[in-house]
Amino acid sequence: MLDKISLFVQSTGYLNLGLGQFIMIIIASILLYLAVVKEYEPLLLVPISFGMLLVNLPLGGLMAAGKDGQVGGLLYYLYQGVKLGIYPPIIFMGVGAWTDFGPMIAQPKTALLGAAAQFGIFATIFGAIALGFSPAEAGAVGIIGGADGPTAIFAASQLAPHLLGPIAVAAYSYMALVPIIQPPIMKALTTKEERQVKMEQLRHVTKKEKIIFPIAVTLLGGLLVPTALPLLGSLMFGNLMREVGVVDRLLKTTQNALMNIVTLFLGLTVGATASAEAFLNAQTLGILVLGLVAFSFGTATGVLLGKLMHRLSGGKINPLIGAAGVSAVPMAARVVQKVGQEENPSNHLLMHAMGPNFAGVIGSAIAAGTLLSILG
């Protein structure tokens, strides 16, 4: 009897919990705190942090691969949707189904701000290569600068599958930390007078324009960068369903049930890749640092182009909207609105910032496709 009790005690996680796993559990708890208490992207951080918690509990085997006829762990099988690049395009379809591209169509020049924010991706690639990453690994790390989790996962799964875990966690973590990272950069690069600029109301965009837009972007973008089609095509198909107004059942399923299910699976399995063995090493630390640099640089280039457009327009454009050029939808646009209202309570920049924000989503998909065609 004592032998059985001793065997049971030895089989518990308490006696098998290592220091690395304990550290990762603390990190998971911090992320969960940010999601629940601070409400930083809770739909993403709650499943990610809990997946991280689950995989670092000893002997659970949730990410164990099925070998030699043995059944693998639950999260291992769900993770195949990430590994095979299935979940990200479905997420993009859901994003497109919720997106109103009207602000970008009404003010096309703001799309340049979304393009400018992608410079953070390409600048970071050179830094990653200088730190010893291969070109393909550097491309996967650099895509974090787009602040678009599905795009980062899609690119990493093809360019550097072995780095998928830390890249995914870094991308989603920085997306959630947009309200902390962006404001200091925005304020450092703009004057008080620039932040107080009130922009004119956007023109009305017709239904015909909104229907033509996703078709035109799919044709132009797909022909330019065919490797971007899984993301770009899914995004535009979701948006087309929204705008045509004749497929309500499909639209509601895409917006709600499908989007929620895939987000749940994606978050849990992304978090589950952050085991102590895979996460606590110098390479992962380098990815986190480079990801922060990429995201910060993308924010800065967007704001700097916004300053240039402010001057060329005779002071009609608030340069803060350039910070929304990163793909963190709609968090980056909300941050622009918040910072703008801190300087001028009557200022309403949200809809103006949504144009660059949506352009950033398109830009990150095209940037990922470009990297895949060059480095893949």
UniProtKB/TrEMBL annotation:
Pfam families assigned to the protein according to its UniProt record, in alphabetical order: OAD_beta
Keyword Phosphoprotein: no
InterPro entries named in the record: OadB_MmdB
Key words of the record: Cell membrane, Ion transport, Lyase, Membrane, Sodium, Sodium transport, Translocase, Transmembrane, Transmembrane helix, Transport
Originating species: Halanaerobium saccharolyticum subsp. saccharolyticum DSM 6643
Any GO CC annotation of this UniProt entry: plasma membrane
GO molecular function, one term: lyase activity
EC number: 4.1.1.3
Protein name per UniProt: Oxaloacetate decarboxylase beta chain
Group of enzyme by EC: lyase
Source organism superkingdom: Bacteria
Record localization: Cell membrane
